[in-house]
Design a protein that fits this description.
heterodimer; A: 289 residues; 2 strands; B: 235 residues; alpha/beta; Rossmann fold; 6-stranded mixed beta sheet; 4-stranded antiparallel beta sheet; 39% helix; globular
């Protein structure tokens, strides 16, 4: 029993890692742009396909492919800012609808480029850390966990300790007041889109060898991310991370002891309970909700 | 001419908020804009700092036209704006709020010196520098908003209703601070509904009514003007 719990904990930690990367990016984009980015799951998918193309197809080193995933999907974020969100500034609903359109474009592009089949990606490593007979952590999962901790740490440092980090938080809190301090709203929007999209891309790239990569893989990812940011409190980065960990543990536990469908039901029910008890989410404040 | 508005008009959609205002602010002065709610006082300040779109007319500052510049570039020219309702960043700490005011400045030692100067001027801010701005009282938030604007090292300070919602004793303190800032060589353009306070502080004043300048003159003259006394001073 203890072994099973420990193993479940490790699995949950892995799930929490990539979910929080996706969710934090989504929150960042929402905070700065004021737009709910429905294409976020497809940015995750795009990151995975960068690994398909460069690592599985092109034979590039895995880490290089992951870095390329971050960069490429970050650029997709910049494209979205330029083509969709900038013309639709002050129109959050328009931005949301445009992001749904972009989601479809990305899916169709993936289908046209790679087909609807599931991609086979050779494992990065077969090594496993065995804590005991039954408690094992594959190295490939440890990589994801370490990468998530490093990236979220770097983001935290950027937001709390650098001039542009302050600027980003300031414009998320009050864009007009930020402009009055000399902060260019266009510039903070581009930074937020690059980082937010890039985090989704890197999460997709990191997990590509461990999940089934197909053009529609973004769907379940975005549903999970939405649950997590609602539970965490829309607009709160800390909330997104905490809720990612909590959700991953509950979901993984229920999946292990019952099954995945029940786990989805439990996850959604938890969101409902949080919305009833604390409508602003765990870390949300009333004015941001 | 330091700041000059020439027949400036601003409208929000079809509603015109300011209809052809001309104004001049001389360097080193305190100039006040008084008027009722909706007279266009705030809109005038917002047009100067670039967050309200100027429909027609010209705004010139230190010789250059600024009415087509984005807000973040106007700050770089030396105009800081303490907006109506303070608009501090609620989830940044006091110190972080102050540092965002110096966002465009690269002269690090001078920024640190100015931060010290702001803390010296507002000891409460030093005490609370690690605290989130939203946890402070209204008066403290107003001081933070003023301190944040001073961190930009402005030549011209726009202040929108700094006395709004504050207790009389705090209002007195704010008035004292405005005089100090002016003595330090910063030109102040002050918008106030509290006409008594504004005319006390200012050298020169404009009275706005429904988007136009109804009266202008030296502040002490306006203070004795019958229309101003009846309409704005309640005497």
């Amino acid at each position: 029993m203890f072994d099973l719990l420990a193993q479940t904990g490790l699995n949950a930690l892995y799930a929490a890692s990539y979910i929080s990367l996706v969710a934090v990016g989504l929150v960042l984009i929402f905070g700065v742009m004021g737009v709910v980015n429905f294409a976020h799951g497809e940015l995750f998918m795009a990151g995975a396909y960068v690994v398909v193309a460069l690592y599985a197809g092109g034979g590039a080193p895995f880490l290089l492919a992951v870095a390329a995933g971050l960069g490429f999907v970050g650029l997709l974020g910049l494209l979205m800012e330029f083509a969709l969100f900038r013309p639709l500034r002050d129109n959050p609903l328009g931005g949301l609808v445009a992001s749904i359109g972009f989601l479809m474009i990305l899916q169709a592009t993936a289908v046209m480029g790679f087909g609807v089949r599931m991609e086979h990606i050779p494992p990065v490593t077969q090594e496993v850390i065995a804590f005991s007979e039954k408690v094992r952590l594959p190295m490939s999962r440890l990589y994801v966990i370490v990468a998530a901790v490093v990236l979220l740490g770097a983001l935290w440092y950027f937001l709390k300790r650098t001039r542009f980090g302050w600027a980003l938080r300031a414009s998320a809190q009050d864009a007009e007041a930020a402009a009055l301090q000399g902060i260019s709203i266009g510039q903070t929007a581009r930074i937020a889109m690059f980082i937010g999209a890039g985090l989704a891309g890197v999460a997709g790239a990191l997990t590509a060898p461990l999940v089934s990569v197909n053009p529609h893989m973004g769907h379940s990812v975005i549903v999970t991310a939405f649950i997590v940011i609602i539970v965490g409190g829309v607009g709160s980065l800390e909330g997104a991370v905490v809720a990612s960990v909590a959700y991953a543990f509950v979901h993984t536990l229920v999946t292990t002891f019952w099954d995945g469908v029940i786990a989805d039901i439990v996850g959604l029910s938890l969101m409902l309970v949080v919305l009833i008890v604390k409508p602003t989410g765990l870390f949300g404040t009333a004015d941001r909700a | 001419m330091f700041l000059e508005l020439d027949n400036v008009a601003v409208s929000y959609g079809k509603v015109s908020a300011v209809r052809g205002i001309s104004m001049r602010v001389d360097e080193g002065r305190i100039v006040a804009i008084v008027g009722a709610n909706g007279a266009g006082k705030s809109t005038t300040l917002r047009a100067i700092s670039g967050i309200a779109p100027v429909k027609s007319g010209e705004i010139r500052f230190a010789g250059d036209r600024i009415d087509r510049m984005p807000a973040h570039r106007i700050v770089g020219r030396g105009i800081a704006h303490v907006p109506e309702g303070r608009r501090i960043f609620p989830d940044l700490t006091v110190a972080e709020n102050l540092r965002t005011g110096a966002f465009l400045r690269r002269d690090k030692p001078a920024v640190e010196a100015d931060l010290e100067a702001v803390y010296a001027r507002f000891p409460r801010l030093r005490e609370r520098r690690g605290q989130l701005a939203k946890t402070m009282s209204g008066g403290e938030q107003q001081m933070l908003a003023i301190g944040r604007a001073l961190m930009a090292k402005p030549k011209l300070l726009l202040m929108d209703e700094p006395s709004m919602g504050l207790a009389p004793i705090i209002v007195e303190e704010i008035a004292r601070i405005i005089e100090e800032i002016s003595r330090d060589g910063v030109t102040v353009l002050l918008v106030e509904q509290n006409a008594e306070l504004a005319l006390d502080l200012a050298d020169y004043a404009y009275v706005l009514e429904v988007g136009s300048v109804a009266l202008e003159g030296p502040a002490d003259e306006l203070h004795d003007n019958d229309h101003v006394r009846a309409a704005y001073l309640g005497i």
